[in-house]
Amino acid sequence: MDRDKVLTHMKPAPSIKQRTRLPQLRKFTVLLILPLVVLLISLQKCTQGANIANKLISKDNQTSKYVTAKGSKVDKFLNDVFPVGFKWGVGSSAFQIEGGYQENGKGQSIWDKFTQDSPDNASVSCDSYHKYKEDVLLVKSTGAKVYRFSISWPRVLPKGTTEIVSKEGLAYYNDLINALIAAGIEPMVCLFHWDLPQSLQDGGGWLNQETVGLFGDYARLVYQTFGDRVRYWITMNEPFTFCYYGYDEGIFAPGDKSDPATHPYSCVHSLIMGHALAYRIYKEEFFTQQNGKVGISLDNFWQEPADPNSEQDKLAAQQSYSFRFDWIAYPLFRGEYPPIMRKIIDAKSKLEGRKESRLPEFDAEWISKVNGSLDFLGINHFTTQLVKFANNSTTQNASNWESDTGTVRSYDPNWPDTGSHWLKVVPEGIRKSLKKIKQDYQNPEVIITENGVSVASLGMIMNDLDDLQRIEYHRLYINQVLKAVKIDGCNVTGYVVWSLLDGFEWSQRYDTQFGIFHVDHQSPNRTRTPKKSVKVLQQIFRDNGFPSVSKLHKISVISVSAQENKYSGTTVLLCSAPFALMFSAYYAYGQLSA
């Protein structure tokens, strides 16, 4: 190539001014184009949020457009009130919020041991042991007239037996109960919310039926000490959850997976006996003087047929329901386990070459104690599952509860997600559950002892307080309870919001939050702050339901699905932040152009 052609193809070197401008242009591109991209994405998210809100609330704010189970009708929001005397409450449990680990002689519980090596254990948690007076004021501020809490068995009986009684432990609960009554709040006391004394676990725990008698001794002590002021007693919280996750999956204390074929059944059997014994002790020794009520809290997932038009799926849903809720409820009303459980497990046990069924039996004495052993039935309802029969022979032939059910459970992908993978928002499920309880058990008194929703924590208080999904959850679920009472005639006498505080959430630790009050677990003071849901619940409690169309019914939720936009509050940031970014970009452009 000759010299002239080379010179023709050569570009002149950039001037000093041009060399200075190039990095500025690159910077300008980042400052302007990036915010534009964020703006477009954010506007798309805002549009999605608005669409989700439209799915939830119709234009007239009367029809809830939440995603229902297949084949179900979406019914109108009911403007009505609960019967006079309906009990509104909030709840908690000892291990989840108290802290005070080993203070004043408290004994170790199985959950203390199970989590002792974890950095996010509950040795302090919400520190309610020291802040109970503040927590009583929080309960009062909601307008609730009932506070459901549990007594820590190892706090009052460090070794689990009455040989050593902690005066300090009894004094703590005595002060708490007195503070509640002084604030006009009725205590609803649970005796066992999973924190078994470790010393009893060392002796076999609930697999050893001696624990049943020791639980009776513990119940008698508590009745003697507090029964003059407590009218509502819950013996056990969710026997299924405790035994299945503690002795099958092993993700709950005591974390024993050694024999999933028999241990969950033996565990539940002992808890039912413990409940019945505590009930009989109260009736025979304390009822005449104290005139209280004794019940039990059972977990209650509504089981919906995967295909509402399939007779097989309907049978599968009933079978799954029998293996979970009826497993504990049926003996309390009938004195024996559900017939379908007895049939399936007895047959499988025989095929496995066992001399006895893996499902225990009550003898004549215990049948008389267990049958009819409750004054009210507490249900803890959170969500719904879709059910069909399993078709995997390997799974069906295994020796464990999951296999014994003969079913598989799933969730509709259209159901809104929450902060817990197992909890989807399906409000109609609670009404269906209440109607079934009425039908199956002659309409007993029912108290909703837990109902609430988890929201994953972002660790940012402005997001954690903006719990719009929780507002909508409670609004819709409570309205379904109202329909069960006013339309279906269900004998529901109370509703307890779960939960008061953001506490220790078992296998999820502190990664998700059920509380209506935020707790700053990074602060030594464990600062409490009310979330937006508190104000809405105050209104519902005050109105005793939904007497008329009000601003309460016009609340729309932008963030209801983790698939669309997982965290409430994030949408607000996404919708507003781009404009700030755009302003910054244009300012930068002006500076570069100067």
Full CATH superfamily name of the largest domain: Glycosidases
Helix content range = 40-55%
Average pLDDT figure: 86
The first-level CATH class of the largest domain is given as: Alpha Beta
Give the number of helices: 23
**Helix-and-strand structural type:** alpha/beta
Biggest β-sheet strands, sense, barrel: 8 strands, parallel, barrel
Task: Give the terminus-to-terminus CA distance.
Answer: 44 Å
Please provide the count of β strands: 13
Q: How would you portray this structure in words?
A:
Helices cover 47% and strands 13% of the residues. The chain is of the alpha/beta class and 594 residues long. The chain folds into two domains: 19-57 and 556-594; 87-542, TIM Barrel. The strands form three sheets. Strands 1-2-3-4-5-6-8-10 form an eight-stranded parallel β-barrel, surrounded by six helices. It has a two-stranded antiparallel sheet with strand order 9-11. A two-stranded antiparallel sheet has the order 12-13. 47% of the residues are buried. The model is unreliable at 1-14, 16-23, 27-31, 41-68 and 555-594 (pLDDT under 50).
Protein topology:
Blueprint: H1 3-9, H2 16-56, E1 87-91, H3 94-97, H4 110-115, H5 128-142, E2 146-150, H6 153-156, H7 167-182, E3 186-192, H8 198-201, H9 210-226, E4 232-237, H10 239-247, H11 263-285, H12 287-290, E5 293-305, H13 311-334, H14 339-351, H15 364-370, E6 376-389, H16 393-396, H17 401-405, E7 407-410, H18 428-440, E8 446-451, E9 455-456, H19 461-464, H20 468-486, E10 492-498, E11 512-513, E12 517-519, E13 528-530, H21 532-543, H22 562-565, H23 570-593
Parallel strand pairs: 1-2, 1-10, 2-3, 3-4, 4-5, 5-6, 6-8, 8-10
Antiparallel strand pairs: 6-7, 9-11, 12-13
Helix pairs in contact: 2-23, 5-7, 9-11, 10-11, 18-20, 20-21
